[in-house]
């Protein structure tokens, strides 16, 4: 998959997230991560984090997981993920999505299965404060391609 295709899909997903974030209280079909990270060293804190799968939003492809910080501005933080089903792992960080109110997103491709993620580390919030995120935890069931036996 090319980076431009990934960026396009992320932008589409962020379009949904951005529209919902501006118009309402958040991404309507996204799931808040199970245990939110705790921001320290910054008075303004950060907005709730959400994870989105293809089951919740068609703009996110099967075998992908999109993380969203539901506020404009901000970047950083580390997402470490591990697929309990396949044994694959990786990491990502939040960056503002251009063209959609600069909402911080991270798109990962963990394959289908049960994915456990930890969100932690240095993060610059929307108020331009440097925070440190004490670890938050997410458990998501990432769907596979239709017709896959997984």
From TrEMBL:
Keywords: Signal. It comes from the Bacteria. Residues 1-30 form the signal peptide. This is Secreted protein. The lineage of its organism: Bacteria, Bacillati, Actinomycetota, Actinomycetes, Mycobacteriales.
